[in-house]
């Protein structure tokens, strides 16, 4: 019996590219992927459940986890911490479950440092013009903020070299199909399968 461990998949890309939409659509389809639950120090919103929507922690608990290197990545937004718990991800992978993480570029680079065996997927817009239209169509940003976000997006797109795969988000369904193909192909990679076979053979011989 081959003892197959799960794989950590990281979906990232510039702000406004549609990461959340692709992730949501992916999980609406029949998928065995486990979504990595984030940890936060912010208060639960109405209807949110600990261990389902987020792992809710106090600031002190969170900072202890940072000190003990128990987070794959973390960041601070508007006075609250957000991060990805290492133990939860490792437990899921050990159980043979694939874990899916949707995250900003800076967070993905932290994951790359702490978890280099992950599979990194970069979502890009069909063009910068299209990205600009998406940011403007949200209708929540001022002209200056749109300019700033576009400048940041250009910088983030230059970080594409850190990733294993690049997926163009021109149509949601097509992007989701491509991500599913990546998941399937990663399980068929020779080095991954060979390693599992050799471990199984060693167990049989002992």
Automatic annotation (TrEMBL):
Function of the molecule: Essential for recycling GMP and indirectly, cGMP.
Annotated keywords: ATP-binding, Cytoplasm, Kinase, Nucleotide-binding, Transferase
Transmembrane feature ranges: none
Residues annotated for ATP binding in this entry: 13-20
Main localization, broad class: cytoplasm
GO MF terms, alphabetically ordered: ATP binding; GMP kinase activity
Annotated catalysed reactions: GMP + ATP = GDP + ADP
GO cellular component: cytosol
Compartment annotation: Cytoplasm
InterPro entries named in the record: GK/Ca_channel_bsu, Guanylate_kin-like_dom, Guanylate_kinase, Guanylate_kinase_CS, P-loop_NTPase
Name of the protein: Guanylate kinase
Organism: Pontibacillus chungwhensis BH030062
Enzyme Commission no: 2.7.4.8
Family according to the record: Belongs to the guanylate kinase family.
Source taxon at top rank: Bacteria
Residues covered by the Guanylate kinase-like domain: 6-184
